[in-house]
Amino acid sequence: MRHDVVILAAGQASRMGRCKALLPLSDAPGDHALSRLARLWAGAAACRVVTGFHAGAVEAACAALGLEAVRNPQPEAGMFSSVRTGLEAVLRSPTFASLDGVFLQPVDVPLVRPLTVISLGEAAASFPGAALIPTFAGAEGHPVFLPAALLPSILAADGEGGLRAVLAHLPLRHVPVADALMLRDMDSPKDYAALCELARGADSPSPAEAGEWLRLRGTPERGLRHARAVGAVAQALAQALARARQREGAAPLPDAALCLAAGLLHDICKGEAEHEAAGARLLARYGFPRLAAIVGAHRDMTPVAPASLTERELVFLADKHCRGGEWVSVAQRFDDKLALYAGDAAACAAIEGRKARALAMEAALAAALAPLAGAGEEADPARLARQALAPHARGPEEPSHERP
């Protein structure tokens, strides 16, 4: 799909008291709202920034980022005046005839993920001619996609009630996405502080986002129980390993939030052939490369030394301790499979190999957690897994008949 982007950055930011477009989102040099959005929209045919208040500073940043600036002559007239300014610039473009549509992106919603952009693009192909608004759990967010055919009608409107009021009279569809960050703006210093905190973990879905993604993909209840169980165990193992390494002054510390997200989403493509690889491809495509690396490796893995354990190994082990939503020892998990495939010598040999590697990995984790035992803390991976699953306890579940 060929599209332009209009970033709306003309506001006065009276409640914020500072130019939102240039507010830093981390300590990294040049990491501000506008630069984040420039990276997000790097694949657009053209990306224009509507300026107004703070025009000098924003336009200088646009020049540094290679973005075209279009100044709103009357920014005090409200956001629809900026929408009009941006869309008129798109219509004047010599490439307008080749465009499928335009994304409208407020600069104060800078943490929109590729997941949302890709989902809107897919929906645009399925519903040509309709404006699209992304939603998370029913709440509307940004950006809005406008098909090229609707631009004249939008520009002919008086803008009373803003863009959403204009769109209410045009073909419109809502597109559910598993991205709560496309709801988060920064209208106040409190909003901005919260956004900076969210920016640190933006490359990993929250539990609510992971749950919504699984729901949108139609994951059955059994799959949801297993996902929650693996996420809980992976998080607990990561937290324990972090405590052990802190006691020893060792690094790196595992990312418990990443382990939780990977555990929740490790079977996102369950039911597809080679579902681990399919899940990794899906996550990478939607902008989650760290998750993809973990999910793609969760079925089988070569053991590593205790000092080399990462989130990948922790999620791998967490999965081996969960049969459906209940706890199981690593040995029993594989013994169940051996019983299922007792008549298939080749399958049993493969299962025995996977069992040996998983037990070796668990031994490596036990060694890495040894410093906790000296402090009177639980240091046994199996018991930590069982404790993590206590809130998820249910009745026994049947062994899975997945490939050996």
TrEMBL record:
Region described as Disordered: spans on this chain: 380-404
Biased composition (Basic and acidic residues): 394-404
Organism of derivation: Candidatus Desulfovibrio intestinavium
Any one GO molecular-function label of the UniProt entry: nucleotidyltransferase activity
Residue span(s) of domain HD/PDEase: 219-333
Name of the featured protein: Nucleotidyltransferase family protein
